[in-house]
Design a protein that fits this description.
The structure is a homodimer of 238-residue chains. Chain A is of the alpha+beta class and 238 residues long. Chain A folds into two domains: 78 residues, Glutaredoxin (3-Layer(aba) Sandwich); 127 residues, Glutathione S-transferase Yfyf (Class Pi), Chain A, domain 2. Helices cover 55% and strands 6% of the residues of chain A. In chain A, strand 1, helix 1 and strand 2 form a beta-alpha-beta unit. Chains A and B meet through strand 4, helix 4, helix 5 and helix 6 of A and strand 4, helix 4, helix 5 and helix 6 of B.
């Protein structure tokens, strides 16, 4: 499905983070790309970011596509969705796919803020008391609200978020659920009964032939405690 | 510039919030719309939101445009930008405008989390200690980082974010700076010297003929302590 020179993806090499949402779309779309910081190190990324002007990214991930430099995860996916047919082409479907992606982005940001409620510039160990309070609210209110929303979307349509075919937000919802399962396994077990459609979708993405090689490869970075989804047992509960 | 039946905008009636970013684009684009919750009350909005399916919003604001129901602020603005010429039409310009809007959305979310670092479902008075710590980091690190980014974008191009003509992210940057000035006047005064391009852009939007009637009208909702940008003097400092 690829055309022209390969894309350059720039994202921190050590964590799945927001870069993984882009990587899943590139992989599922069989799109040629170079994962520059994984090849050359995150120091190279930091230097590259500093030298960019014009279509200047605020932060990684960003994707260089010929003359274009695209930043913001959802914006990159909007572009890839249109260019490689990873989302519906009609205005309603295109917009709803993007809306779903932005909603995934919102809960991803909240999942990060659970362990960094005071400041992204401080360590977790310097905000543990605040994180414990934030985690309770996230577990009790926010995870059910967001995943309940995606469950409702799947009950409107299904079996995929946009209906009969997979699109890029399905890949992102998969990554979100994987991350929540990693960070909050006890809570996710409690909620599983009300999330049958969301969990079935997660399983369906996990089995996509388009992703089989990638998910089994070393290119797929495991979740870890430097990333967005972190397993701190003291922040999880039933 | 309007075509077809007017749009229906749905957003909470009592605060500018995220709805204001949409309202500014509708007003500057001379686009016919009904501000449904301001006409009929926020209870009507809550009921409307509950009954929607299909293109189901996660939260307000959402815009009903014929058969389409669009949610997520940046997604609505992407649509209005294309439909009403409020952003460049070429792929690079369209994408960069959207990227800037998503970056505004990120700092808007962080500005909200300053007074709600633990949980959106708790009152400010129940998280004041955490908010004081979060505010210091936001003032010292995040405001300079984000506004410095927009300053750099304006130095690449200018006088508007996308170059010679205004586009929807300019309206949003105006609203962001107005909000930060309202919530953190002492800090913003300290930072002003390094933000000459951003502040000049804010002033330029404030004087746009397309916005004169609106900004002088009662439709323009003042910032207040139920919204995203709140003036709690104890959270501000030089």
């Amino acid at each position: 499905m690829s055309e022209g020179p390969p894309y350059d993806l720039w994202y921190w090499a050590e964590i799945p983070g927001r870069g993984e949402f882009v990587r899943l779309a590139l992989e599922a779309g069989a799109t040629a790309y170079r994962d520059r910081a994984r090849e050359e190190g995150s120091e190279t990324l930091a230097r590259d970011l500093e030298t960019r002007s014009g279509q200047r990214p605020f932060a990684p991930p960003y994707l260089v596509a010929g003359d274009l430099c695209l930043a913001q995860t959802a914006n990159i996916l909007l572009f890839l969705g249109e260019r490689h047919g990873l989302a519906p082409a009609d205005p309603g479907g295109r917009s709803f796919a993007h809306q779903l992606q932005l909603t995934v982005a919102d809960i991803v940001a909240e999942a990060h803020d659970v362990h960094h409620p005071v400041a992204v510039g401080l360590y977790y160990r310097d905000q543990k008391a605040e994180a414990a309070r934030a985690a309770k609210a996230f577990r009790d209110e926010r995870i059910p609200k967001y995943l309940g929303y995606f469950e409702a979307v799947l009950s409107d349509r299904g079996p995929w978020l946009l209906g009969n075919d997979w699109s890029y937000p399905d890949l992102s919802l998969f990554q979100l659920v994987e991350g929540l399962d990693y960070a909050f396994p006890r809570r996710m077990k409690t909620l599983a009964g009300g999330l049958s459609r969301v969990l079935a979708l997660r399983d369906r993405v996990r089995e996509m032939p388009e992703l089989a090689d990638y998910l089994a490869s070393e290119r797929r970075i495991p979740f870890n405690e430097d990333g967005i989804f972190r397993h701190y047992p003291e922040l999880d509960a039933e």
